[in-house]
Each structure stands twice: as structure tokens, then as C-alpha cells.
Amino acid sequence: MRSSPFLSRRAALIGSVALLLAAPAYAEEVRVMTSGGTAAAYVALAPQFERATGHTTVTLTTSTGIGPDAIPNRVRRGEPVDVIILSRAGIDELVGEGKVVAASRVDLARSSIGMAVRRGAPKPDISTVDALKRALLQAKSVAYSAQVSGIYLTTELFPRLGIADQMAKKSIRVDVGRVGAAVERGEAELGFQQISELLEVQGVDYVGPLPAEVQRVTVFTAAITVGSKNPSAARALIEFLASPRGQEVMAKSGLAPIK
User: Fold this and answer.
1) Using CA atoms, how far apart are residues 124 and 138, in angstroms rounded to an integer?
2) What is the layout of strands, in order, in the sheet containing 29-34?
């Protein structure tokens, strides 16, 4: 049976509309700054987002940084960026300063602090608070991050355990790069950082999380800056990171998805 020219044209029109709906009206560029805790998941998801939407991502940093290079300070200076991923506290601080759109905040994942040793080294027991304290006192050197996890260890955990003075003598603060990398190089016997960051380093063995009684869970949040050039694409990226696929990748990287 011969097909009708009208039906053929109608089918072609429907096909064209479907293609238009499947792709964005125009591709946009999304500039992103992400903390180290969510970096592994974000780096894995960014290419998938680009394929799904046609937008492109420009990753400006995969570490929170310190001093002038810290993400909040870069945002305060007006550096062009669309999406930032930081601890919820860091995002809220920037909201209060008028640098981030309050309504754009989306919690992505929960992150816990863990410990690692050099690949093949004995793994101390840290399953209880007493065991953790013994491991810390027996260690010759301990490395920690200059960011959220390290601040918690030095200002709250060590004093709470009554070992602040002993730890000060053998602690190494890692200002740049992964704590696990310092452990891998043999610069420290034990390393503490967000679990998702420790798991990224091939030359270490992950020991486990801090005991629940002394654990500090950080919620990582994504948000759009007030000066975003492409807020619609930025919003699409955040929605993608928070999607079931995004949550699956977050979990594989050592983060706990937001239910």
C-alpha cells in the first residue's frame, strides 16, 4: 500500500519536534567549582550531563582550597562561576553575603571522615572511641586536611579525647592535595579526611570511618551564584547531580546520598 504524502510529512514533522524536545534550545557553558569531597562524583557525572543535555561544563577547581584560592574567596572576588559545591555551612555563609541564590540550594550528599594507611601497612583498630585514641597515641605521625575534616580533628576531636598536646607534636596539616597522597609518599603513618577523598588515592588502604560517637558528618550542597551567566544550565546541572543517577555515582564514590 502506498503511503500518503500527508502522512509522510506529518511523520517527519513529529520526528523533528521530538528531536527538538530531546535537546536544549541552545547549548550553554556551566562553570563549576567543587570541593574535594564531591570531586570524584562530579568528575564522573560531568561528561554524562554533557551528553544528556548538550551543555558543556568548565571545571575551575576540584578542591575547596585555602587562603586566597579558597572557593568562597574566589566567589567573593567576583570570579565568573555558575555552580559551586561546598559544605552546607559554606554555602549558607555565601547566601548570607548575597553571593549565592538562596532558593537554588540543593543538598547532594552526606560525607563522613575516615582513616587510611599506606598500602600494605597494618590497619589499626579504630572501631571504638578507645581504640581510636590508642591508635592516635601510638602513631608516629598523623596527617589531616586543612579543610572541614582537619579543622574538626584539631579543634574538637583531639581536645575531646584529651590528646591535643600529644597530637600537636606529630600532626601534619596538608594544605594542598589529598591527605592520602601524603600517606602514600610515607610522610605520615595515618591520614584522616573525607572518605570520598581517601578512596581516590590508589597507594593507600582505607581503614574505616571514625566511630559514630565522634563522627562529624558534612552535608555537601550545590548552589547557583548570584552572578551566574547561565542560570538555566546551572540549574540543569544541579538537578542532574541530584537525580537517581547522580545519587548512585555519589554512593560509589564514598558519599551517602541524600534520601
Assistant:
1) 10
2) 56-61, 29-34, 83-87, 218-224, 106-111, 256-257
